[in-house]
Amino acid sequence: MNSNIDDLINIAKESVKEIAPNAELVPTLLVETNHTAVESFHPEGYSFLESTNSYKPKNPKFMAIGLVVEGSASLTQAIKSALAQLNVSKYVLVMEGYGTEFTESADRYNGNIRNMPPEDRFDVAVITAVSKGNTPKGFTARIDPAPTEDGLRTLREWEPNTAMGGRLAITNW
Question: Is residue 170 in a domain?
Answer without folding.
Answer: no
